Amino acid sequence: MILLRHGQSEFNLHFSATRRDPGIEDPHLTPEGRTQAEAAARALADTKLTRLIVSPYTRALQTAAPFIASRDLTVEIELLIRERYAFACDIGSAPAVLAESFPDHDFAHLPDRWWPEGREEEASVIDRAARFRAMMAARPDQRETIVVSHWAFILALTGQSLMNGQWIGYDPTSAPPGALRWTP
């Protein structure tokens, strides 16, 4: 499968410059983030993909949009692949708000508050990554799947720290990573 980190968000732009939480909840992509998403869709245009699994955060849904627009994909909104709750940007939007912004997606399976109440421990993200790895290892379409997720989740799944808009190939039958470095 392909793992794609969402494009640059408003949060990423400000946090990178100041290393302080700018207090932006469920941020949108910046123009650069949209460019990164479009570039990824173009670069992967010849890759056979039939399924897209995306986190319910706005920045991930916006990153997925160029793939959805250019292909016939089955789209799944998956809570397991959400970002680790550590900053204001990790406060999501209610399903009704998401449905208004993304009317072609089904958010009915999400609870009204689908993100944690407070900071999520590393062990929790590692556990979510293990559950997702097992789920994907059992799927026959894993090689034709693109997953649009976040820095901490991809780190917990693979041990790799991806930049905004970066993607990697990943085999969910591979062993989990060893020690993880939780600072970008």
TrEMBL record:
SMART domains: PGAM. It comes from the Bacteria. SUPFAM superfamilies: Phosphoglycerate mutase-like. Transmembrane segments: none annotated. This is Phosphoglycerate mutase family protein.
